[in-house]
Amino acid sequence: MANIIIVGTQWGDEGKGKIVDCLTEKSNVVARFQGGHNAGHTVVIGGDKFILHLIPSGILHKDKMCIIGNGVVVNPEALMSEIMALELRGVRVTKDNLRVSKNAHVIMDYHEDLDGWKEHEMGSKKIGTTGRGIGPCYTDKVARSGIRMHDLDWPEQFKEKHLANIADLIKRYPNNPDIQNLVKTAEATYVKYISLGKQLKDYIDDTDITINEAIKSGKSVLFEGAQGTLLDVDHGTYPYVTSSNATAGGAMTGLGIGPKCIDEVLGVAKAYTTRVGEGPFPSELTGHEGELLREKGAEYGATTGRPRRCGWLDFVVLRHAVRVNGLTGLVITKLDILDGMDKIKVCVGYKYIDQFLKDFPKELPILEGCTPVYEELDGWTGHTTAGVRSYDKLPQKAKDYMQVIGETLGIPIAIVSTGQDRDDIIYS
Ligand code: IMP
Hints:
About 35% of the residues lie in helices and about 20% in strands.
């Protein structure tokens, strides 16, 4: 199979985990390139539910190599728990099916403390992060003071960096009791992380070499994006974003590969839109319709359990995603959640004062002042798409909905997902 990047086209939670799982069958390697255990990828196999946060969902298949690239931020404790939870359910995780980049940055306990502290300090302007320490860890990476996975194998070097970071934090956060306490806990933290490093040692690898050699030898790679285009630190609704590049470009830097090895970029879009956390969401439904989507779609965060905000499909968002990712195809998920709806709306543009906008505005004040312009389509009441596994068997109105999406965005719909199970899927 080709080398394919899978990205989210909305605000995350589009159902990428299931799509990666389905495409893994035909791939040899599955690689994560950004984010951390803020992600929650749900895969259901024969009624058994797996929620993966860090390890690519390819781990659930036999004989696949899973890679956690240098662009990912790794909480070693969370990674160990995930490995152990998989092992307990009979999934073997060894260096033959999991490699973690030496250069991936380590999420320290104080990153998590800082995440919570900053959110608290921001009050009503908070981002609504997952509280996993993602932003503070990427901040250290860019500030060139971060700790990388291979540092855990160099105790003296690790200790020096760790103590320097603590000293710096204590100066910067005089009023934060957790941070001021770090001196007292420094030794215990050092011992804990060195021990985690030892437990993970076998998995630590030059993943840039592993992945490039795999590609050179003709193996096919699935690049698994986390979060979504509108949460990308450059192309999303900044500052209400995550701290990494969740768009296709992130796969290059986050793994150390060149653009020429990519054959396809598939964007995953829910048949409607959801967002978790704060920030603008023009097509959000705040009333009864939004609640209906939330309950029908079980829209609660896989990582934090927070209720997701729900709204109609937004072509302004999707057009932006097609562009900044160079999408070659679209995957529509959760089509079945729209079953039974009399009318379905799609947002075709935004009204801003007296202007009609078709392109996603970069300026937050403009975005916040936009109202959605909708077109209404007929639903497919009396018919169901749930569990349908061939395009021909979809109700005509559902086919019409797919056609409108494909034609509006000018890209083919490659896959449609019609239920949670691995087999509830239609390939075009
Ligand atoms: P952070 O990544 O924890 O810093 O959170 C920043 C923003 O990204 C918040 O709005 C989170 O809710 C959102 N976010 C992070 N990871 C995910 C995800 O996997 N799905 C959906 N939203 C996410």
